[in-house]
Design a protein that fits this description.
about 270 residues, alpha/beta, Rossmann fold, 11 helices, globular, hydrolase
Length: about 270
């Protein structure tokens, strides 16, 4: 079950960006990471590996984050700056991602099932909103994409896009965007909903212990950093490979066929 430690209002990081309203009347809310979770590969990894300093240095930095020797905020900024330093404009990056990033094959069905059953879906990302929105609209269509709330970082673009840098939502946090604060406000509600969270990587570590039911994506490329983190820290979770798998479990919980505790006990 989620961490029940009382929320210290003073611990809330300063946000440079607004939040959408929370769903106060919902019985269930699905919050999901974007890169590598809703998509089949991480868009920022794709940029870094192909246009920046490459996969070896990126993976080395990710492992440094897991080991606690560097913050995700600083490592991620270094990755993205390597792309800009190689002369790639921000608009070029958006176009490259729109051509190369694909949705998890089960996400459209999952999203539409959630809409039909009054389960709000919120994307919680450490990426930059213009790249995320560009890819989401391309893959889902403008109308459906515009219906989904997105909580993420932004970007500062100068010199007609030749110079650009990530604008962190929580610049004082070591996460850059502390995703737990997309979840924690729901715990303050008198009638709090059941919260599903879906993630895959190091940027999801701050949110991992706060969801009622945590789904951790397992990827064929072996970059399963959130799964390793949860195993090492004994955070109960359910592993999945596609949203088709996750939808079956969410359906059972929403329809009252299984409890969250029963799912976590079974691990599937």
């Amino acid at each position: 079950m989620p961490d029940s430690t009382p929320i210290d209002p003073g611990s809330r990081p300063h946000s440079t960006l607004p939040y959408p309203p929370i769903y106060k009347d919902a019985q269930f809310v699905a919050l999901s990471d974007w890169d590598g979770t809703i998509t089949t590969m991480d868009s920022n990894d794709f940029l870094t590996d192909n246009l920046g300093f490459g996969i070896e240095k990126r993976r080395a930095l990710n492992l440094e984050v897991l080991a606690g020797r560097i913050t995700f905020r600083d490592a991620f900024r270094e990755m993205l700056r390597s792309v800009a330093a190689n002369g790639h404009s921000f608009q070029e990056c958006v176009e490259v991602l729109k051509k190369n990033i694909k949705l998890d094959p089960g996400f459209k069905d999952f999203y539409r099932w959630c809409k039909e059953h009054d389960v709000p879906v919120v994307i919680v990302s450490s990426g930059m909103e213009p790249t995320l929105r560009g890819v989401l609209s391309t893959l889902l269509g403008d109308d459906e994409a515009s219906e989904i709330d997105v909580i993420c970082n932004s970007v500062v673009v100068e010199d007609d896009g030749k110079k650009w840098d990530i604008q962190y939502r929580h610049p004082d946090s070591g996460y850059g965007h502390d995703k737990s604060w997309a979840i924690l406000p729901y715990r303050e509600l008198a009638h709090r909903p059941t919260l599903f969270f879906f993630g895959d990587g190091v940027s999801d570590m701050s949110a991992a212990k706060h969801a009622d039911l945590l789904f951790v994506k397992i990827k064929a490329n072996g970059e399963n950093d959130l799964a390793n983190y949860c195993r090492e820290n004994k955070i109960r979770h359910v592993e999945f490979t596609s949203f088709h798998d996750a939808q079956a479990i969410v359906t059972d919980v929403v329809e009252g066929k299984r409890t969250v505790e029963a799912v976590l006990e079974a691990g599937k």
